[in-house]
Design goal:
Belongs to the peptidase S41A family. It is found in: Plastid, Chloroplast thylakoid lumen. Its EC number is 3.4.21.102. Pfam families: PDZ_6, Peptidase_S41. Its main location: plastid. The protein is of the alpha+beta class. The chain has three domains: about 60 residues; about 100 residues, Pdz3 Domain, CATH 2.30.42; about 210 residues, 2-enoyl-CoA Hydratase, Chain A, domain 1. It is built from eleven helices and 25 strands. The strands form five sheets. It has a seven-stranded mixed beta sheet, sandwiched between helices. Strands 1, 6, 18, 19, 22 and 23 form a six-stranded antiparallel beta sheet that branches. Strands 8, 9, 10, 11, 12 and 13 form a six-stranded antiparallel beta sheet that branches. α1 runs antiparallel to α2 and α7 runs parallel beside α8. The longest helix is centred in the N-terminal third of the chain and has 20 residues.
Length: about 525
Amino acid sequence: MEPLCPNLDLKPFHLSPISTNISPLFYSHRYRSSNRRLSCLKRRVSLQRDDSSSKSEELQFSGKEWLRSVGKGIFGFAATSAALFSVFCDSPALSESLTVAFPVSRAPEVNKVQRTLVEAWGLIRETFVDPTFNHQDWDLKLQQTMVEIFPLNSADAAYNKISAMLSTLGDPFTRIISPKEYQSFTIASDGNLQGVGLFISVEPNTGHLVVLSRVEGSPAARAGIQDGDELVEINGEKLDGVDSESAAQKLRGHAGTTVTVKVQSGTNFSRSESPIREVKLSRENIKFSPISSAIITHKTPDGYLTKTGYVKLSEFSQTAAPDMENAIRELESQGVNSYILDLRNNPGGLVKAGLDVAQIWLDGDETLVNTVDREGNMQPINIVDGHAMTHDPLVVLVNEGSASASEILAGALHDNGRAILVGHKTFGKGRIQTVTELHDGSALFVTVAKYLSPALHDIDKVGIAPDVQCTTEMLTSPKESILKNNSSASSLEADSCILVAEHELDVQESKGTAS
């Protein structure tokens, strides 16, 4: 299976447990897509000097139209060298080219960001999901931002101007991060990082930074920070308008250092009535596995003793699918009769990992998800010759913290008739981002499409509603369980949603409707 945009430099990464709002789309050979609709961008950068010793920079991009009026109004700068930008594409449909000149900053680090600006502008111009660019002239935005960047003296100030330009698109998930931030954003493949152990995301309705979940045993968990809490300040800096990756960058740091955060409860009562508390957190080496499992034994209504395999998936890292396979293989060897897959407070991660996990439970050539590009073209992503590891009855637990890849997985299993959903409506993050490392080491995140479930239900800003709701209260009545790995006996015994899931499994067994 070819990627949607083979000329686009997609860089794989691991999702940080303190940043959750990015879900880049990656494909493997096990999936197929009916066509390729997204525009493709080929980027070349060369540096030349002409005989007059003025510096000329040539950046070549794809373009659908002539760049109108870019450079108008900026040629008045005296005693500056000119940057020449040639816009082109290999595609016959996008074959126009154009060279535009404008002043190059005297500050080398700012000039470097100028090149990054045009590179980012071109990528967004060809791939951003909204072809109206939030009802604005995107070509004119390049001109305006270049004028604003020209007199600056620092790269940080220049990056701020690019961020301001991107914010006009009205999409919090399309953004740029500096080279330093991108290096911090990328986590080693062993799943270790130095930080406080939080999964955070921007709440789409309010724009507030909220805690989706915490790594068990992490400094944040030990300090009593709860799912749903709002982050108000980090080290005295208010977080109004700050995206989740920037906040995550502030939370990360070398083990042994500390960070002070202010949080406001969002779980027990309204935030307007909740006091803000200050918490000092130590940064540590955070080790986490995306999978924990257990065997829950209970009696069915007719008196039979059954075993249910409980698997909790906390995030979609590169190891999610192989770890899931190992967990199911172990549970099958112990004779389980049914499964509960817990995706509550799973903020997402690598979408490819979500698709890989889905095929563990599905057969044949089922549709896993549909994508809709900026021209409204829809394409399904299907399993190719799938063979499920088990056909035992399955219930999937979801809630408001289940986002992105979690929603894709839940939708795939539900719409294909493989699982019943129990819990609460999911987060509603159904956008596809590509992640491209730019020439200066920074990274551009661009929303290029939207997801629809296999049954064509919109996910973005809507979420997925469960078949059966359950209360979030913790019960006191014990139940027999045999636990392994990181699952807590007390939490499973008191989890009312698991009791509801067990009831639904009993109903499936009584009807003989094993999937």
